[in-house]
Amino acid sequence: MRVSVEWLHEYCRPELDTAALADRLAMTGTEVERVERYGVDALDQFVVGRVLTAEQHPDADRLRVCTVDIGEGDASQIVCGAPNVSAGQTVAVAKPGAIMPDGTMLKVAKLRGQASHGMILAEDEVGIGTEHDGIMVLDADGLTPGDPLVGILPIATDVLELEITQNRPDCLGVYGVAREVHAATGAALAPPPWAEDPGLPGQLDAVRIIVENRELCPRFTARAFENVTIGSSPRWLKARLMAAGQRPISNVVDITNYVMLVTGQPLHAFDLDRVAGAELTVRAASPGEPMETLDGQTRRLTEDMVLIADAEGPTSIAGVMGGARSEVGADTTRVLMEAATWNGPNIHRTSLGLGLRTEASGRFEKQLEPEQAMQAQALAARLMVALCGATLLPGTIDVGGPGAPPATIRLRDARVSGLLGLEVLRQRSAEILRALEFAVADAPDGLDVTVPPFRRHDVTREADLIEEVARLGVLEDLPATLPPRHGAAGRLSWEQRLRRRASDALAAQGLHETVGWSFSSREQAQRLRIGDRAAVALANPMSREQADLRTVLIGGLLDAARRNRARGADVIRLFEAGPVYLPDDDPLPREPYRVAAVLSGAVRPPTWREQSPTAADFFSAKGVMAGLLDGLRAPWSVTAGATEPYLHPGRSASVLIGGRPAGWVGEIHPQVAGEWDLDDTLAAFEIDFAAISAAVTDPVYADVTSFPDLREDLAVIVPDSVTADELVATALAAGRPLLVAAEVFDVYRDVERIGPGDVSLALRLQFRAADRTLTDEEVAGRRRRIVAALAEHLQGRVRES
Questions:
Q1: Residue 355: how many CB atoms within 10 A of its CB?
Q2: How many CB atoms lie within 10 A of CB 740?
Q3: DSSP-assigned letter for residue 613
Q4: HEC profile of 213-263
Q5: What is the pLDDT, as a whole number, of residue 801?
Q6: Could you tell me which residues come within 8 angstroms of residue 659 by beta carbon, excluding any fewer than 6 positions away?
Q7: Average pLDDT for 266-287
Q8: CA dihedral in degrees (229, 231, 233, 235; nearest 10)?
């Protein structure tokens, strides 16, 4: 929320500069995101001027050369393009050196050959309106050329950008913020701007109101005005709206926005003559019911949305946006002013469902109080009479009335001191609460505190009152102490250390860690071909793209890969470690922790010897996974036949860790990759971390240097169905304990020399004994056992040449 300091000072003016005020608000619980300067700068260069002459420019039909008195006998020549400039006018002038709202410094310029020493200003050129067709003509009474423009026009102010928490909708109005400033600084607080109400209770005959659902509309108020003159708002009002981020439109519409910004209560103005049947009904929408809103779009409503309708159909989406059919226009003479209270969660769902967020919906969804409706009506009535020349008709429609009676809560002295750890005088507690407009009365053991209506949903128990006392009067006085330790030490658990080691192992291989959303969507699941799998749906999602909890990590990694590729990244090496969420019979889902990676592009940088390095493929992903699992000392293997539908069927495998299924490794199916606009090979893996942690082995140290090892190569012909993993496992089983390592280092196929359906796999065997140097006879005997085992179990035979 943007709060103009100039506007804030109308209600509370502390003896603090803007920076100190922002710091004080932040320290008492009202977060100030930033402080901005709105309007112009170098204020001494903005002065009152009087046009002495206004002659036609000799070389331009739309320009006039003016002589302007800017004080102290100084007359400047200014070239002006406004059609309404003429001699004798009192105007606003920016001299050379003035800094305009966009930050540019005004300089002496030449326009079609004529020197211009400044600018005669229009509203938009000093940020107090949007009008640009003509210059501002000031009332000459009391003004002399050279007078500073500051104080005459609101051309500059500091603006506080506030982050209002969900529980404090009372601070969504300038007066609510002023109340906080009063309590935080002790500066005097002016009476509320709605204190004087020109309206009267009683029946209003101009219109009939029907509220069908009091739960969704706790209060609906309306007042009628006649003899309304639609026109431009005064400059002070437009300046305040502009500083708050609102665009001035017309006096009636500007009044509704101004009152909302002061009170926090949105209003809506209907053209009373365009309300069909002079009757409004608050009701639920019909499924698919259409309505054209003020932004010119036709929206389809659902049955859980609330609308306001007249005899011809919907005229407003309750609490979100009005309709085009009954909006106030230039020919409006009768206005119906509505201020209602809506059910906050319902407005939030409606806003999300329509993808339509407005200043009104942002306030209503935080649950405003019914009393605010009549406060807004009182201020709006005064402004309508003063600024529009309107006649307020007698009577006020009030369906629902004020909220529940205020609650009274006992605040015990002992409880305040016990919870805060510091003695707080009862008098100090009472002073703070009264400043916040709580009613306070003495009680035997403390205070009886009556909660004001605008804090009804926020302060409901004694602890809430203690929080108010603490944030405004105690927290800054608390001594700085260290908490007692009693021998406690902060250490990571074994599981946490293992997870960090996993991230370090992947980062050491050149992968970059990503942290993705825990949310997903059905559309992403469809692209991954797992749309039929159950997922945990969120009851109140932030958007349709985040409607479910993720069941796999690879979807988020593909999203990250697409973003990186779209920004020119040719090589992608990403990983993520985190939970996925799987539906369970229990109310809460299972949350297994997983680690996943995706690779694309060259596996190493190009060099002059290798200008086009090999691109990432199945074996690249397997190698990265091997570096991870070997670094964690988790025994692993892979088997053909991964069943994930988003994998390439011939270039993927299932991962076993400690003999248990733990995930997959392989290439993403090209058609799935195409769904993410990625047309090259994507290699990836995803592993359940619980399987890793269950299989991690303790390190075993052995002497490997005292006696040399002996290495031999063995080429074995086996059927094509035999895997390299089976060949290595059989050799190791037969050759132990002297055979300490075996690996496949070559594959050879030749139908004529080997035969159809067979393949030659070359094994590198490493023999070693811990207590002696092996002899050739020992190794030969062990080799014969290996050859025999390969022949018996795998139909293998030694290839002689």
A1: 9
A2: 17
A3: P
A4: CCCCCCEEEEEEEECCCCCCCCHHHHHHHHHCCCCCCCHHHHHHHHHHHHH
A5: 66
A6: none
A7: 94
A8: -130
**DSSP states along 296-312:** S-EEE--TT-EEEEETT
DSSP labels for 695-754? Answer: H---------SSS--EEEEEEEEEETT--HHHHHHHHHHHHTTTEEEEEEEEEE--TTTT
Residue 382, Cβ neighbours under 10 Å: how many?
Answer: 19
Which residue in 69, 154, 156 sits closest to 117, CA to CA?
Answer: 69
Give the pLDDT of residue 56: 93
Encoding tokens for residue 282? 């608050």
Q: How many Å separate Cα 139 from the centre of its chain? A: 47
Which contacts qualify for 64-73: CB closer than 8 Å, 24 or more apart? 65/114, 66/120, 68/93, 68/118, 68/120, 69/145, 70/95, 70/118, 70/145, 70/146, 71/47, 71/144, 71/145, 71/146, 71/147, 72/146
Q: Are 379 and 198 in contact (CB under 8 A)?
A: no
Which amino acid would we find at residue 715? A
Phi, psi of 762 (to 5 degrees): -95, 125
DSSP state of 163: E
Token pair of 147, please?
């007078």
Measured torsion, CA atoms of residues 341, 345, 347, 353, in degrees rounded to the nearest 10: -170
The answer to whether residue 487 scores a pLDDT higher than 70 is no
pLDDT of residue 579 exceeding 90, the answer is yes
Task: Please give the radius of gyration of the chain, using alpha carbons only, rounded to the nearest integer.
Answer: 39
Say if pTM beats, i.e. exceeds, 0.90: no
CA distance 94 to 120: 7
**Residue 693 is encoded by which pair of tokens?**
């942690």
- Peptide bond preceding 737 in cis form (omega within 30 of 0): yes
Among residues 769, 757, 728, the alpha carbon closest in space to that of 745 is found at 728
Q: What is the DSSP letter of 482?
A: P
Please tell me what DSSP assigns to residue 553: S
- State whether residue 599 is helix, strand or coil: strand
CA distance 208 to 281: 8
3-state secondary structure at position 107: coil
Which amino acid, 550?
R
